[in-house]
Amino acid sequence: MKTQEHNKKRVCVIGAGAAGMMCAVFAAKSGADVTLFEKNTSQKHFLSEEYFDNAYMGKKLLITGKGRCNVTNNCDEDTFLKNVPVNPKFLYAALHEFSTADTIEFFESGGCELKTERGNRVFPKSDKALDILRVLKDRIRQYGVKVINRAVAEIGTADGEFKSVTDSSGNVYEFDAACICTGGISYPVTGSTGDGYRFAENTGHNIKTPKASLVPLTSDDALCADCQGLSLKNVTVSAVDSKKKKKVYSALGEMLFTHFGVSGPVILSASSVITGIVKERPVRLSIDLKPAITDEQLDERILRDFSKEQNKAFKNSLDELLPKKLIPVIVMQSGIKPEKKVNEVTREERQRLVKLLKNFEMTITSTRGFNEAIITQGGVNVKEINPSTMESKLVKNIYFAGEVIDVDAVTGGFNLQVAWSTAYAAASHIQ
To answer: What is the pTM of this model?
Structure first.
């Protein structure tokens, strides 16, 4: 008669990022014998690395949220799914099973106090991503997950079922199930080099073409270089498909001008919607510099500013209205002569200025590359994955979780929640 230990399901999790660690924790907690493969090697021993064979887990996790780790978004399911532009319906079951509230409880019960900031973004109170990683590593240790610090080279299948993995040294390990949590190809320095796509393709799955997402946008317009380094807060950014003349994105937030184009939170979120479009044709980006007031109110504000010093040249009259670096660009685009006295500016010219401030445009021609992308858009086709269990519909006992799946969201903690929820779903249904 087999012992209870021998009756345990043998599970391997490939990739010790956010999804992989969470999957390993819950699979082990439910009674499985779990082995976690991580190819990154750590040279730092800041977290008792000795019990993890020196594997560098959570490398990308440590740099999320500029090192603070925006662990989730404290919102309801409907709001959450509205922030998932790619395949939101696929997440219904997983998010319901492991919600944002469950994520908060998981980390706080592990000793990491959290706080909710603007936009319902959730961070550790310490502002240290390391504290999120510590909870995951402590739970991995608690539930007896074995960590092997080697890359997986190949996944073995037979008769439509998963059988084994082969590591980079040629060692073959037999398991009952595998969960692929290798991420995408964004930030390849963190280990996200597309391994999961290769595993999926080699086992018969289709991959939606990977694209850089949550990534800065490039523009050839001179105004970007002229405004380089300028940060704008509380502006509304809208994106219009130049071919279909259709608005595809609009949101209030913060943005930054760079030498190559634009970046910042609201721009990164916009990229998740337009990255596919801009591969084929330019996208018009419109910035409402004064979204809190109407055109009429803005006109009245300009009139008040003009009336204060009527003999000022137009180019010197906008100091209270606009950031200094933006003024020369606005003056040039307004078509109003820079030296013209403000008391000579016509109503027509003033209205033209209003329209410019409410619709400051540029052309987006492309995105930056995977080296600067926060996430990867694309991945394993969701039609080939059971949305309730994350098990492959094509190969029994192969599961997927996290960024390797063709699901992605905007900034604000949503993508990490996708990792937590899909990982939990996979771990809970590995049988």
So the answer is: 0.88
pLDDT digits 0-9 by tens, 139-162 = 999 999 999 999 999 999 999 999
Residue 128 binned pLDDT confidence (cut-offs 50, 70, 90): very high
- Find the range with the poorest average confidence among 60-69, 100-109, 326-335: 60-69
Residue-level pLDDT at 56: 85
Residue found under tokens 């924790």:
25
The DSSP-derived string for 400-412 is: E-GGGBS-B--SS
Triad 305, 355, 301: Cα angle to 5°: 20
- Rounded Cα distance, 103 and 229, in Å: 36
> In whole angstroms, what is the distance from residue 327 CA to residue 318 CA?
7
With contact defined as beta carbons under 8 Å apart, do 239 and 273 qualify? yes
What backbone phi and psi angles, to 5 degrees, belong to 269? -65, -40
Q: What structural domains and CATH numbers belong to the chain? A: 4-211+377-429 (3.50.50.60), 216-368 (1.10.8.50)
Q: Nearest-5° angle of CA 272, CA 276, CA 280?
A: 145
Per-residue CA distances from 24 to 28, 343, 425 (Å): 6, 70, 12
